[in-house]
Amino acid sequence: EAVALGQAALYPPRGQRGSTAQSAAQDYRIGAGDVMTAAINEHMLLAVQVESRAGVDGLEAVLATGAVDFIEVGRGDLSTDFGVPLQTRHPLVLEAIDKVIARCTAVGVPCGTLCATVEDASDMLARGMRSVVFPNERAVLLNAYRDAFTALRSL
Disulfide: which of 84, 88, 136, 145 matches 75 by Cβ 3.0-4.6 Å? Predict the structure, then answer.
């Protein structure tokens, strides 16, 4: 599947992606087709999400294709697949994450994940994640308000 994704994402001669003129698919570029497609191929990033035990187990084969530039670990779905829904810090989930990090590091492919707290992000980076995404502004504000209300109630 990773090879097929790589083929679908890249223009010939590196892939089999189809062409359309002056559109989002061509990054709204105009000019010589070979120059445009070479430039787009050069800047293409193929990211794959690992969200299941099968994804963790099959990761080496996916990485061996050389087509993948980045691995994103979907810890919510991963925890559910391991039978511990939304327990993203459960030992089973952390063990799987460590396997993903080790496999990615071995071939030089960066990996990342969503982190709910600064402490969680710090741990993921310490484990070897190369990228962490923090929640959207709504979640940040809700957490700040929740912490403030807790502190105010204790007064």
Answer: 88
Sign of CA dihedral 81, 83, 88, 94: negative
- The stretches of 10-136 forming alpha helices (DSSP H) are 33-43, 53-57, 59-64, 75-81, 91-107, 118-127
Residue 132: how many CB atoms within 10 A of its CB?
16
127: amino acid identity, one letter: R
Query: Is the pTM of the predicted complex or chain greater than 0.85?
Result: no
The answer to whether 120 touches 89, Cβ cutoff 8 Å, is: yes
Give the phi and the psi of residue 116 in degrees, each rounded to 5: -85, -25
Tell me the pLDDT tens digit for each residue of 47-101.
Answer: 999 999 999 999 999 999 888 999 999 999 999 999 999 999 999 999 999 999 9
8 Å CB contact between 133 and 115? yes
CB 101 within 8 A of CB 127: yes
**DSSP output for 120-151:** HHHHHHHHT-SEEEPPPHHHHHHHHHHHHHHH
H or E segment and range at residue 71: strand 70-73
